[in-house]
Amino acid sequence: MKWAILSGIEGNLTAYEAVLKDLRQLRQPVTELYILGDVIGLSGNNLKNNNLQDDSLQNDNEAVIRRLRHPGVGQLKPQVCVGWWEEQCFSLHGLSGLPDAPELMAAVGGDGVKALWDSVSRKSVQWLRSQHFGFYELDCLLIHGSMASYADELTPETPAIELCDRLIRADANHLFCGRSGRTFECWVNPNQLHSTVTTLDGPQPTQDQSKTPRRIVGVGSVGRTPGQATYTLYSPGSNQLSFRTVNYGQAKKGKAKGFGFP
Predict the structure, then answer these.
(1) Domain 3-151+176-187+218-247 sits in CATH 3.60.21.10
(2) How far is Cα 111 from Cα 115, in angstroms, rounded to an integer?
(3) How far is Cα 204 from Cα 200, in angstroms, rounded to an integer?
């Protein structure tokens, strides 16, 4: 059993096709393909002085969605969960608890909001809405952010106590996440870890959490960086983890790498 774990296609079909080609060239075939959110986005645009400009990336959210929904003959059907960009799209279409996409407006401005609205059809939004929040497989949780939030960005710089909290919430030994767009492996080995739940009846008995070492893995980003896609391979049977970088096309110099987020 071998998993390919991707995130952050961000509408970059060329980058996604490059990763699929790389997967076909592996000696050991991949048995499961997971995509941890941000399949759509504005990776092909740069926001500068509130004007959208072309970049070396080509953004086509509808083409990416069609590719995910209809893989080629003999190709794996990807298992998809929602990410930050999908949640912004739901907000724009009145399908979430935050109308008018305030997070998106703060990040990319009015031009970015319009660009996302124009690039994803209502039908595609409904399909994205039907996708999962995350996946529990064996002792692993695969998710865009964390159980705390789709926007939760975990990195090696995240305080250890916060990483412990996310792992306890996940109730998993391995947490794979894609929000940061980075590839990293971070082990947490708690020597003494206790948790207490407070209900309406007051604090409940303290629970002693497992001392088993647990791991948080950043799976990379397929479409965010021009000319370079990163993703993760994982073999649950052997617990073997590897990060792969696929170079594709020819990125133009002096161009921005898409939107930055808080």
Answers:
(1) yes
(2) 6
(3) 10
DSSP 175: E
State pLDDT tens for residues 153-175.
Answer: 999 999 988 998 898 889 899 99
Distance from C-alpha of 130 to C-alpha of 41, rounded to nearest angstrom? 18
Give tens-digit pLDDT for 221-232. Answer: 999 999 999 999
- Cα–Cα distance for residue pair 41/250, rounded to 1 Å: 21
Dig out the tokens for 259 from the structure.
């939107």
Q: What is the pLDDT of residues 28-44, one digit of tens each?
A: 999 999 999 999 999 75
Structure-block tokens of residue 153: 């960005």
Q: What is the domain partition of the chain in residue ranges?
A: 3-151+176-187+218-247
**3-class secondary structure, 12:** strand
CB neighbours of residue 108 within 10 Å: 25
